[in-house]
């Protein structure tokens, strides 16, 4: 029996234009199509695979605006059992610390949690920090950047893959927290039956106050870091064209030297 909490975030579609708002430099989420974060789709898939290999329940936890309900329903239509949605205007512009505090409070309301599964990073903020902060706040062992996860009774075994260290084998006792990478699995597509069933699955919607978190600890005004200035990235330039009249290699090398790339 493994009761799993999986953390999902709604993010702007990577293929739509993403921009910062001119007023407070936070991400302008309204101007872009929103999707369930791709790495979080794999976190949901991993949670379902562990549940299907044994017994247990999968609870989705999401901190996000009202429209994040679509991302939650996607996770429920894949097969998750229920969800907790923390939605509160006070959260606008929250930094990673505040986000992790709110997620920790939401997880502590879920009974008998054996395993928390997160993405190793998100595709919008990309801090790659929430899982570690959460493990600290919840006092859980953390097994991060998982490439492979195996739950055996009350033990969890993970193969971590990072660019620097290659493959590392980690083990811990449950309860524990795992963050997964985008390479861990191929998420299933929700079936029509799954999509219909998701409409009836319970989603508990909570405010920061419901969680007993002080609104004075969250939001842009209380963030430890803030964006003071932002400018749209310059349009891509056409690039340099090299005509190869037998000296193409030399010209490319001269160009790379000129760009201080070699
Ligand atoms: C462009 C941009 C720049 C930012 N820069 C900073 C900064 O410099 N410092 C700072 O403190 N904050 C910053 N933020 C805010 C930060 O992104 C948010 O606090 C965010 O909710 C958490 O950070 P993350 O998505 O980067 O987290 P990561 O640590 O990258 O997320 C890892 C995993 O945690 C889980 N998770 C993250 N957020 C949520 C959520 N809201 N609900 C459920 N699960 C979640 C997901 O499983 C995710 O895959 C930035 C946001 C943006 C969009």
List keywords for this structure.
nine-stranded mixed sheet, 24% strand, globular, alpha/beta, two-stranded antiparallel sheet, Rossmann fold, single chain, 262 residues, 25% helix, binds flavin-adenine dinucleotide
Radius of gyration: 21 Å
Strand content: 15-25%
Envelope shape: globular
Q: What is the helix/strand order?
A: EEEHEHEHEHEEEEHEH
Instruction: List the strand order in the largest sheet.
Output: 9-8-7-10-6-1-4-5-11
Which superfamily, in CATH terms, is the homologous superfamily? HUPs
Kindly state the percentage of residues in helix.
10-25%
Largest sheet: 9 strands, mixed
| Secondary structure: number of strands | 11
Enumerate the spans where pLDDT stays under 50 for 5 or more consecutive residues. none
From the N-terminal CA to the C-terminal CA, the straight-line distance is: 56 Å
Fold-level CATH name: Rossmann fold
CATH architecture: 3-Layer(aba) Sandwich
> How many structural domains does the protein architecture include?
1
The total count of helices amounts to 6
Task: Identify the bound ligands.
Answer: flavin-adenine dinucleotide
What integer is the average pLDDT? 94
